[in-house]
Amino acid sequence: MIFSKKLINWYSVNKRDLPWRNTTNPYHIWLSEIILQQTQVNQGLPFYDAFITNFPSVFDLAVAKESEVLKLWQGLGYYSRARNLHASAKYVANDLNGVFPNTYKDLLKLKGVGDYTASAIASFCFNEATPVVDGNVYRVLSRYYGIDTPINSSKGAKEFKDLAHELIDEKQPSAFNQAIMEFGAIQCKPKNPDCEVCVFQESCFAFRNNKIGELPVKIKSAKAKKKYFNFLVFIDESGNTILEQREGKGIWQNLFQFPLVESNSNLDTKGFETVIQSQDLLSGQDYSWRLYNKEPIVHKLSHQHLYTNFWIVNVKTLKGETIPVENIRDYAVPILIGNFIENFNF
Q1: Is pLDDT of 1 > 70?
Q2: Which of 33, 128, 159, 182 does the annotation list as catalytic?
Q3: Which segments of the chain belong to CATH 3.90.79.10?
Q4: Is 214 a catalytic residue?
Q5: What is the pTM of this model?
Q6: Domain 225-344 bears CATH identifier 3.40.50.1820
Q7: Exposed, middle or buried, 111 (CB in 10 Å: 0-12/13-18/19+)?
Q8: In terms of CATH, what superfamily is 2-208?
Q9: Residues pairing with 323 in the sheet
Q10: Torsion sign across C-alpha atoms 84, 75, 188, 24
């Protein structure tokens, strides 16, 4: 097809030199694709390099402690990706003797691997003609063909996947998939695409009909919920503090945090005094406290916005399990906590 050939030709001239493009090693490709889910290339590249350095093979990753994997992942967010990565590494190393599945269908059996990631690995490593469809691909196809079916609907997912199947170059599936992803990332960008130098300018529906800003179409998601977090940063006279490991399911599962009190609204000093008086850790001894941040720190997640305060509580002696503040950076924490630790400079 003319579209596919023109796209691959564009890619051969314009592609970025990225480490995972210089190999067909499925471990490296899988690792890069998991990291790049929900993450831009410039942000993900240092993490990719760090994982390859610390875990050169799937066997090295499989025998690592989960805490080590989460610590190395710190800053990327969406920590379920790291837990699934670790689980799949164990499965490949222990059940498959280190040999990755080599078909789209079998790759889907890996935890954390969906349609897009399975298609990417199958085509890049094993030359299987299965198309990738991600945000970049949705945008390119929607604009070029004038498709206004919402990309986050089941109908849209099927429509775009079927179209990608029709377009893929079966002799060069890896080149086609990488080309269309790259084209969406650096040419047909979400905002201010450089249409004046686009190789598809003459035949692009969105350009000819002045609909660049209208495509692709996406159904608006529900409004994010507000939550109010109050982290209690205890520090005793011996230089100890308290970190607790989160349990149960959730985005921060198994990560560490300061003791947390949730409230129905942003706490003022009077409201916090009520909270602090209920802490068993402080019973029977003097303490002092202050609010670290003047305004709540807003941490935005896909489904909720966290309005966060860090309350510094100084006390003579802390009860229970504590850690020296100089060791605080050894623990895997959410980026929200990590940023506070660096700024507070224990």
Answers
A1: no
A2: 33
A3: 225-344
A4: no
A5: 0.87
A6: no
A7: middle
A8: Hypothetical protein; domain 2 (1.10.340.30)
A9: 241
A10: negative
